[in-house]
Each structure stands twice: as C-alpha cells, then as structure tokens.
Specification:
Layout (H helix, E strand, L loop, with lengths): L6 H5 L7 E2 L1 E5 L8 E2 L9 E2 L1 E3 L5 E7 L2 E8 L7 E3 L3 H4 L3 E9 L3 E14 L2 E11 L9 E3 L7 E6 L4 E6 L13 E3 L3 E8 L2 E7 L6 E3 L1 H10 L5 E9 L4 E8 L3 E3 L3 E2 L3 E4 L3 H6 L6 E4 L1 H4 L2 E7 L4 E6 H11 L2
Parallel strand pairs: 1-19, 3-10, 7-12, 8-11, 17-24, 18-23
Antiparallel strand pairs: 2-9, 4-14, 5-6, 6-7, 6-10, 8-12, 9-10, 10-11, 13-14, 13-25, 15-16, 16-17, 16-21, 18-24, 19-20, 20-23, 21-22, 25-26
Amino acid sequence: MTFDLTRRMMLGALPALGVAGVAGAQTPLPKPGERIFQPGEEFTPSLDTWLDLYGRPVAKVMLNGKGPFSFMVDTGSTVTVIAQRHLATIGAPVVGNVMVAGTTGMAETPMALVNEFEAGAAKKKSVQVAVLPDNGVANIDGILGADMFAGKRLLFNIARKTVAIEGSRHPIYVSPKSAMRIRNGLLAEIDGRIGKVQCKLMLDTGAQNCIANLELSKALLNAHPRLVRLDNVKVFGVTGHVLTGQFIALPQVETRSFYVEDATAVALDAPIFHQWGLTKEPAMIVGMNLLSRLSSFVLDYGAKSFDAKLFAEMIARNMVGMG
C-alpha cells in the first residue's frame, strides 16, 4: 500500500517545530548526559478548556487565588508542572528538586509548593509541582499531570473543546472493547494495530504528534515497505533535549474503539520508551494529531476503560436525526 503526502500528513510532521510532553517525575540522581537546570479535594468539575496552538487540551487553572493560568491537560505526564516565570506571582516557594522525564530526555528541576490548586469548581491544597524553565513551556503556563486525576474519569469532547474530570464509575464489568491498562500506575495504555502490526498504544494528550519506537518502525518497514518516510525530523522536548527521527505516513491505525486513516508518526529511539520498558516490542505514543480526529473519548483510570467516538459517527447520527 502506498500513500501520497497529503496536506494532513504534512501537518503531521510538525513535531519538527513542536515540543514533546512531560512523562514523569522521579527522585534519583541524574545519569551521565542528562541535563540539569538550576532553580533561578478531588477533581470533579467540567473544566473551561480549549485547544492550544498544537491541538492539545488546555484548562483554566487558579493557583493560590491568582490566575487564570492555561494548563495543558496531559495524560502522558505523571507530574504536574508550572512555568518558572509564575513562581513569584503566586508566591510558591521552592521546597526541593525532582527528576522530570520527558519524551526526549530527563532533567532535574526545582519542586515548588502550591498552597491551593483550583481547576473549575474543584480545589486541592498543598500540591507539589515540578518547575520547568520558561522556554520549556513557552506557549502555556503549566501542565496538569495524571497525578492530579489518578483514579478519575476524563471526558474529552474534541468537537466542543471541553474536558470533564469526574469520579470513576467503577463498573462491575468492562467490555474487552474498552479495556485499558495503567502502566507505571498512571499512564493509559491500550492494544492496537497499525496496518498489519500489532502494538501497544500510550494515550498522550500532551503530545502534539505520535511517536513510534524503533521496534514499531522496523515492523512497519517489514510489513509495509512502501510507506512514505522522511528523515531528519527533529523533536524538541520540554526538558531541553532535541532528538532526530524519521517521519512515517502510517497505514490505518485500529483499536477496539476506533480506527483512523492518514495518521502520521515520528520514529525515535526516545528515552521515555526505555523508562516505560517499551523497547523490545512495537509501541507508539498516540498524540493529539491522531486523538483530535476523534469526536470524543473517555479515559476512566479507576475502571481501566477507554472509549472513543469518531467525527464520522457523530455526523451519521446527525444525518439520521435530520431524517
């Protein structure tokens, strides 16, 4: 099967200009080659959100009674992050350091204490957040990580540009169609197939674009040798690292909940795959260039379930309703 470089596919190559999301926080000392920066209630609301420059969901957040600030809702991040420029404004003291793992690498950053963290109608007190240099989160004020919505149910409505964070429904039975795993305690993972290749898919609303590991790239090359590929695509990470990978025009991406054609990815030997233990089997970080093709999707961390609806399904229902 061959693909032409459609406008949609070329837009999928935008990680060359983009920023990869934050994935997690740890406390060990940095390893050789890692970059170190020096320091200079429950969620149950419907958040006032929109999509940022790169198509990622963003929520309005109040910090210590000040704001609103624009925080990206990032299911691929296990830690909440704030831009360094806002510490003085909100009066958040630095209380230590934390190791932040992004898609492209790791960095030790300051850790600040926010006395009151408010998103929509919900509040949470004494929240520890990682602090990133301003250039790492230049287009947003911070990142709302999975540590803030662990065990909850997230409803992303792409058509309406809203996100709702609710209590988990904890059903007695979850259909195999909706089954979702939680990797490393916080990361949403489902099974999928890309063309003829079975793979693991990490659902990451903080990533602009899909990132394939090298095993998936090799498997696709064997199964679909005529796929369009472009070399020397750069991915810039929030931790300050830059990696070079290969753009791939993917065959059909299929899960038990949805299928999408004309998707794209960048194949990288990204450090985050090593951290997640996903270097020996085909795997892909599913970014918003693919997720935004859905009309809506739901991640229930408590029930370990994922459901999605395509825009085509919504249009079909509307046509039936119109008679």
